Each structure stands twice: as structure tokens, then as C-alpha cells.
Amino acid sequence: MKLLVKRKFLGKNYTIGALYIDGKYFCDTLEDRVIDVDQSGKFDGDEKKIPGKSAIPYGEYKVVINRSPKFKRELPRLIDVPHFEGILIHRGNSASDTSGCILVGENSIRGRLSNSSIYEDILVMECKAALKRGEDINIKIEES
């Protein structure tokens, strides 16, 4: 299964994107602000991570499904993200809910998501089905 986040709006305090599953649009995303401005996949030069307020670097990552100790439910987890640990894809409504993670939902209000619980549930179900079929799950983060 191939997940793709295309970052569309890089704001001062948040980033809006679109999530695709195997090439098909699925929902909108919300992340913290992008620090990896040169899109190199790492923080270099003047790019400095601000804990809990920086989006993950551009690149491609392996995804697993496991139980989040914080949220007490199974969620997609990105593996080997430079400078980050515990990056999940989950529900949430604003940049204050991200802590570096990728939120899913509908961007119907500027800087916010709605209906995120529905999209999280469907995404987890789709990921579990892919794993059951023996597929690997990868996510690519790029600018649109």
C-alpha cells in the first residue's frame, strides 16, 4: 500500500496537505509547520527542529500499525523518521493536536480539520487490510 501526502499550504504555524491511498485522494491532512524548506529530507543549514511544532522532513517512510500507548488504540506509525520518534497518523482538529504527527480529516475551516475520527478509522481499517494481504505500507511526503 502506498500512502502519499502532498503538502499544499505551508503556513507560519501549520501545513495543509492531501492524503492519497494508492494514487486515489482520501482526505486532507494537517501538520505542524515545515522546517525542511529545501526538501532535502533532513534538517540542515538554518533548519532547526522545534519539538512539538515542526513537521517531519520530506521523504519516504515505512508504516506499521501498532498500539499507541498515548492514545490507547492501534494507529499507523511512521518508522525511522530523522529527528523524530513516535510519529503517528491520527485524528485531530488543529496544529496544537499534532506534536509532529500527521492529522487526517476535512479541511473545511482555515487551519483546522473536521470529521477526523471517521478518516482515522477508515485509514486504520485500510492499513490493516493491506497488511493482511501481505503488503508493505509506505508513505511519501512531498510538496504538491
Protein structure class: mainly beta
Query: Whole-number average pLDDT?
Result: 95
Q: Level of helix content? A: 10-25%
Q: Please provide the ordered H/E string of secondary-structure elements.
A: EEEEEEEEHE
At the first level of CATH, the class is Mainly Beta
Low-confidence stretches: none
Helix count, DSSP H or I runs of 4 or more residues: 1
How many beta strands in the DSSP annotation?
A: 9
Secondary-structure arrangement, i.e. CATH architecture = Beta Barrel
Give the arrangement of secondary structure elements.
Elements: E1 2-10, E2 15-21, E3 24-31, E4 59-68, E5 73-79, E6 89-90, E7 102-109, E8 112-114, H1 116-132, E9 137-143
Parallel strand pairs: 1-9, 6-7
Antiparallel strand pairs: 1-2, 2-3, 3-7, 4-5, 4-9, 7-8
Give structural notes.
It is built from 1 helix and 9 strands. It is mostly beta strands and 144 residues long. The chain has one domain (2-143): L,D-transpeptidase catalytic domain-like. It is globular. The two termini are 20 Å apart. The model has no long low-confidence stretch (mean pLDDT 95).
